[in-house]
Amino acid sequence: MLRNSIHFSISIFIIPSLLYLTGCSAAIRPESAYTFGSFRYERNSPLISRVSMPPDTVLKYLQKLDNRPDYRPVLPGRREMHILKAALGLLPVRTRHVLQNRLLGIYCINDFTGNGLTEWVADERGTIHTFMVLNYSVFTKTVSELLTEKENTCFIKDDPALDINIDCGTAYSGLVYILLHESTHVVDYVTHITPYTDEAIKPIMKNRTAETDFTRNIWRGYSASIKQYYFSNKVSFYGIKPPAMRISEATAAYRDLCRSPFVSLYASQSWAEDLAELVTFYHISRVLKQPFIIHLRRGGKNMVSIRPLESSEVIKRLPLLDTFYRPEAL
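^ thats the sequence. predicted structure below, dont judge the formating
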């Protein structure tokens, strides 16, 4: 499972009668959270029709996962459905193709922990399918508002005059960022652009590899980059772990980000997040023609502004994203 803005390394998957749960080490989960048969899935149905209330087994699983018995699903209203349908249409063509074939459902939860979650489940033949969970609040924020709020949680506020602002324009809702990010995880689960999207999927992968074109020379392991940067192993969001960087260190962190192959601090956490963030910000900037600028401000006055997509190390990697813009068959 991959979750934005909070990432837990817990995933479940179904193979004939075993359910595996991985945290720091693998274990067998004794009870079934859900099965492929729990979902209503019609491969040829429009993507927007897969927005529905979650199966009861999925809701109970999420409540237990986050220790949140108060989780309540909500069906988007007419306005939200319009925003969601438009956002689905904005996705890269390859992404839409994979979602059409492998997305079981999109479910909204009030006050969900984090902004979104991508979960996967295998059918009886071991074919990977996915579903998404969205925090209903993503409909109420612009991309810039959502990202600015998230980014500031990465730092201890030791200097109250300093703040970080991320400018991705005002044309799109925060849903566009979350949907781009989470749907990239779906593509990765199905097509393995990285060696594996999370640890739990490895036992049922037919062809495993230690590296791919995307991770080569960047990552030596799932969450271990080859080169170390100022921010390496210091990145955490939304207070799940206490922030490890002070906001007074932000200038040093972002200057080093410009020398790295990562498009954001969030991307440096793992190769799965690296891919999701790179595709997302490339699409927002180059396809949707929105800005992507990180501003460090003191008392509202700009001190430092960086454009991560203009970093030479990031630019080298952009041709690897061509696959997202080719409607190839699975």
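Confidence is low (pLDDT under 50) at residues 5-31.
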